[in-house]
Amino acid sequence: MHTDQVSFTGTVAVTGELDLADALHLDQARWPVPEQLRLAGSTESLDARRATALGEMSRTQLALSYDSDPEGPTAARGGR
User: What is the pLDDT of residues 36-53, one digit of tens each?
Assistant: First the structure.
């Protein structure tokens, strides 16, 4: 991801390569949000709603809490 290459519409192209298990989990995890957006009246395309879902996940689904603990990252408290 190159955040210094922003489009005129304020978007950034993101690509990546994951192992199959992680890719399948990521795809499964992002499906509820696009459907919820559609049911709430969104007229955006499926791809746009899926992109929104990834943005929402990046803001709210933090699995690890990085702190100064010498033992390394710890599981976040609370969450889903």
Answer: 999 999 999 998 998 888
Is 38 domain-assigned? yes
The rounded distance, in Å, linking the Cα atoms of 33 and 79 is: 17
- Number of Cβ atoms within 10 Å of the Cβ of 53: 19
Domain range for 63 is: 20-75
Domain count of the chain? Answer: 1
45 vs 49: CA distance, rounded Å: 6
In a domain, 80, yes or no: no
Beta-carbon count within 10 A of 22 CB: 11
pTM, to two decimals: 0.57
- Nearest to 14, CA basis, from 3, 30, 26: 3
- Say if 12 falls within a structural domain: no
